[in-house]
Design goal:
TIM Barrel; 2 domains; 5-stranded mixed sheet; 40% helix
């Protein structure tokens, strides 16, 4: 499971991507960080459901690993509290687009849980790994990823190809999983799984489930193990 996290004005960690409600709640201009949970809890998202608290999501799926992208510094403490409260420290992988936020949330979560919490590399670390792997400096690329459990990356970034067989193989040699985002079409899902990626972030879970089932059926079909 992958989710973004923001905090309400009263420090409740919420599974929410955007800084405001506008895109998913009919143009509602309220900012997540400026609105208390008591009011956010009644908001209808695309007229289908409500916003979930992070602690509720973690508690509702006690055996499921979570990739958590902390979107702002204000969400660090509520995120750490939710992880510690639900005892989820050994099944979360934390990251942020902001390297300072990523470092802080991993540090605080590890302290609160009493063990090292898994982290996904920030953009600056991914860039350093890319440079080292392109130069063929395998020892350096392994050292760059020493503190991380996963690389969560797009297929391309600003026109530059990121997810290639060479990238995936180098990450695996360094002991890191590779998670691709955000992949919504089935051919791309198949291609990435063929490449060896370990996870796919998608807005179309229905398509991803279909791809997974098709591949499982192919492996277990007549004459196959």
């Amino acid at each position: 499971m992958e989710t973004d996290v923001r905090a309400s004005s009263d420090n409740v960690a919420l599974t929410f991507h955007d800084p405001t409600l506008a895109r998913v709640a009919g143009g509602d201009p309220r900012a997540i960080a400026e609105t208390p949970w008591s009011r956010l809890s009644t908001v209808r998202v695309h007229d289908r459901g409500t916003i979930a608290r992070l602690d509720d999501a973690l508690a509702s799926f006690p055996d499921l690993p979570f990739n958590i992208d902390v979107k702002a510094a204000s969400a660090i403490e509520p995120t750490v509290a939710a992880i510690a409260r639900t005892g989820a420290g050994r099944r979360v992988c934390l990251t942020s687009f902001d390297p300072a936020v990523a470092h802080e949330v991993v540090s605080r979560a590890s302290s609160a849980c009493g063990h090292q919490v898994m982290a996904s590399a920030s953009r600056t670390t991914v860039a350093a790994f890319l440079a080292a792997s392109w130069l063929g400096a395998e020892r350096l690329s392994t050292r760059v990823l020493a503190r991380y459990a996963a690389l969560q990356v797009p297929i391309r970034y600003r026109g530059l190809p990121i997810l290639t067989p060479r990238f995936v193989a180098a990450a695996h040699r360094a002991g890191c999983e590779v998670h691709a985002w955000t992949i919504d079409d089935e051919p791309a899902m198949h291609a990435l799984l063929d490449m060896g990626v370990d996870g796919i972030v998608s807005n179309r879970v229905d398509r991803l489930v279909k791809v997974r089932e098709a591949r499982a059926n192919h492996r277990t079909g007549p004459g196959r193990e």
